[in-house]
Structures are given as structure tokens and as C-alpha cells.
From TrEMBL:
Domain Response regulatory: 22-138
SUPFAM superfamilies: C-terminal effector domain of the bipartite response regulators, CheY-like
GO molecular function: DNA binding
Modified residues annotated as 4-aspartylphosphate in this record: D73
Residue ranges of domain HTH luxR-type in the record: 164-229
Keyword DNA-binding recorded: yes
The keyword S-adenosyl-L-methionine is annotated on this UniProt entry: no
Stated name of the protein: DNA-binding response regulator
Location of region: Disordered: 1-20
Length: 233
């Protein structure tokens, strides 16, 4: 009796790989973008498909391009990362957003969450934490960089015990837009053209800002804008 031929080896069908997460990277410093891109592109599940030099450009790219995740710097010309995050959350609620910043600041953290971001990563720890933050955002999980957890949670619990609210916004979103552009040196007409409002409306907003913040002139507004991270010194 002839022996039976050996059975063919069992083969399993290959598991389809998920396409990499498409990342939009926005920072007004080309060297920073290059460094962050090197970090992200080194990962098989992440790929930077678009770069922007300011928040307005980031919004435009995210509206027209196919991206899954936007990584936004806070302090950028024309529109900050927080302003861009608010706009993108309205326009593309399915888009995941991370804030990448040099400011290790509790106020920014809560503003980032309120703006629709999934997390907040200081540039000082980007090489260590940014990749994991991106993956957490795509899983629709919040990301708090490890060094912030203890302080933020303690402060939040202290506020809750004392019945205090989270830090309030001192000015409206529109006033924040005006303040940033004033601090960048734009005239009322230029600001009106950028925001599609009249120069008189810009002047009225600026007067409201001075009154709300207890300030006297553009110089004091500029110092305030630097202090709260709307522009860089």
C-alpha cells in the first residue's frame, strides 16, 4: 500500500493591516515641524501627510485634506492652536486633535480639553510622550502626560472640594481673535479684512478688551497676549 502523500502545510490568511493614521502637523517653526515629523514618521502606524505654519492654514488643510489627527502648537500667527482646535471641532467633530506646546500650564490644559482636544503634550517631552498621545487620541482616549497627572488631579479635586469652578475664560473667543491680531501689530482695517468684519467693529472689540482687562493701550494688550500664550515674545 502506497503511503498517503503528506498534507499541505496549513496557512493562515494574512491579517489586513490598518492604514497608518494620517497626521496634520501645525507649528510656525519649520525646525520644530521637522523634528516632530521625524518622531511620528518613524512609527509604522503614523504618517505626517500635511504641515501648516499657522492655525488658519491648519484649519484650511484639515477641511480639504484627508487627515485623521491634527497636532497643533498653541502659539502660532493669525490663529492659535486652541482657536484652530475650536474651529476644527465645529467643522470636523470626528477629527482627533492634540495640542503640542512649550507651555506647561494648567490653564492651557483645561482650555485644550474645552476646545475639543484629546490631549496636551509639552514640547519638552514630545520625544517621549507624543507617539503614545497620538495613539490614545485615535483610540478616542484622553491623554495626560505623566508629569501633569498628580498636579492637575490634585488641583481639580481641591477645587471640587471647595466648590470652585474650573478656570473661567476672561474674554470671549472673538475677543481672543482680536487680541491676538492686535498684539501681532495688525491695524483695525487689516483685522477687519482677516475676520470679515468692519474696522469699527474691531475698534469696539478692542475697547471692550481694554475695559475688561483693565488696560490702557496696545502695549499692555500685547504683554497680556504674551502672558497667556496667544503670541510668543
Amino acid at each position: 500500500m502506497n503511503p498517503l502523500p503528506p498534507s499541505p502545510p496549513l496557512t493562515s490568511s494574512p491579517t489586513p493591516l490598518r492604514p497608518p493614521t494620517r497626521v496634520l502637523l501645525a507649528d510656525d517653526h519649520a525646525l520644530v515641524r521637522r523634528g516632530v515629523r521625524l518622531i511620528l514618521d518613524a512609527e509604522p502606524d503614523l504618517t505626517v501627510v500635511a504641515e501648516a505654519g499657522d492655525g488658519a492654514e491648519a484649519v484650511a488643510l484639515a477641511r480639504t485634506g484627508e487627515v485623521d489627527l491634527a497636532v497643533l502648537d498653541v502659539a502660532m500667527p493669525r490663529m492659535t492652536g486652541l482657536q484652530a482646535a475650536r474651529e476644527l471641532s465645529r467643522l470636523r467633530p470626528e477629527l482627533r486633535i492634540l495640542i503640542l506646546t512649550m507651555y506647561d500650564n494648567e490653564q492651557y490644559f483645561f482650555e485644550a480639553l474645552k476646545a475639543g482636544a484629546a490631549g496636551y503634550v509639552p514640547k519638552s517631552v514630545a520625544d517621549r510622550d507624543l507617539v503614545e498621545a497620538c495613539r490614545a487620541a485615535i483610540r478616542d482616549e484622553p491623554f495626560i502626560y505623566p508629569g501633569a497627572e498628580t498636579t492637575l488631579i490634585r488641583n481639580y479635586l481641591d477645587r471640587a472640594r471647595q466648590g470652585d469652578p474650573l478656570p473661567a475664560r476672561a474674554i470671549t473667543e472673538r475677543e481672543e481673535e482680536i487680541l491676538k491680531l492686535v498684539a501681532e501689530g495688525h491695524s483695525s482695517k487689516e483685522i477687519g479684512d482677516l475676520l470679515v468684519i468692519s474696522a469699527k467693529t474691531v475698534e469696539r472689540h478692542r475697547a471692550n478688551l481694554l475695559q475688561k482687562l483693565g488696560m490702557r493701550d496696545r502695549l499692555e494688550l500685547t504683554r497680556y497676549a504674551i502672558r497667556v500664550g496667544l503670541i510668543e515674545p
